[in-house]
Amino acid sequence: MKTLAQFFDHLPLLPMRWEIRRNDELSGVGSGVVFQAELAPPLWSAAIALQPVRLPEANEISALVNGLLGVQEPFLFRDPYLCGPKLDPGGAGLVGATVTVVAANGRSLSLGGLPSGYRLSIGDKIQIVTSGGTHAFVEVSENVVATAGGTTGAFQVFPRLSVSVSAGATCTLARPACSCIIMPGSLQSGTSSGNIVSGIAFRIVQKRGV
């Protein structure tokens, strides 16, 4: 998998927004009751647009995308304009901290290794790397405060945690990244005007299990 330095850091990104791509089947009855079946776990997705670049830089970006071999090579991707939790946007409070999972169960997670009294807010993102090296990317669903010892009680996250997430997994709260691929057919190579290329864009979607 490509690290942030190998792919993400080379892209002059415009602002982006994470959104959820659900894989549900819906059915209903005449009384108005709607039933939902989750056919596969929901996936994080985002529409990515790049700033106008000079032609040599556009060629470099094309080469980086080509090097992903379609969907064979996943890469880490993060929001370039949100670097830390809501109440610690620069991540300064996390310097020197080694945050790990204390316990995980479905949609519940508890963390250790946080600074005393550290606060996480609804919507904050967490990158988790399991002992097997696979990645998870979740958002905090309720406000939580670490104890004096740096641990939290169980709090809800979204989406549901995979069974591979267990105690001891490492967590990144500052510049958290998601493992992604470029959706086939979504790449727009942009248009040239002299030496400037504008309109380079693509859509990314989470790749689980890597």
Structural overview:
The chain is mostly beta strands and 210 residues long. The chain folds into 2 domains: 1-76 and 179-210, Phosphorylase Kinase, domain 1, CATH 3.30.200; 79-176, Elongation Factor Tu (Ef-tu), domain 3 (Beta Barrel), CATH 2.40.30. The chain has one helix at 55-66; strands at residues 19-28, 34-49, 53-54, 75-77, 99-105, 108-112, 119-120, 125-129, 135-140, 144-145, 155-158, 170-172, 178-182, 188-193, 196-206. Strands 1, 2, 3, 4, 13, 14 and 15 form a 7-stranded antiparallel beta sheet that branches.
Descriptive labels:
7-stranded antiparallel β-sheet; mainly beta; Elongation Factor Tu (Ef-tu), domain 3; Phosphorylase Kinase, domain 1; 210 residues; 6-stranded antiparallel beta barrel; 6% helix; globular; 2 domains
Mean pLDDT: 94
Write down the Rg: 19 Å
How many beta-strand segments?
15
Unreliably modeled segments: none
SSE order: EEEHEEEEEEEEEEEE
What amount of the residues lies in strands? 35-45%
Shape: globular
Mind describing the biggest β-sheet? 7 strands, antiparallel
Which CATH top level class of the largest domain fits?
Answer: Alpha Beta
Structural class: mainly beta
Figure out the total of helices: 1
Named CATH topology of the largest domain: Phosphorylase Kinase, domain 1
Oligomer: single chain
Percent of residues in helices: under 10%
CATH architecture of the largest domain: 2-Layer Sandwich
Distance N to C terminus: 8 Å
Question: What's the number of domains?
Answer: 2
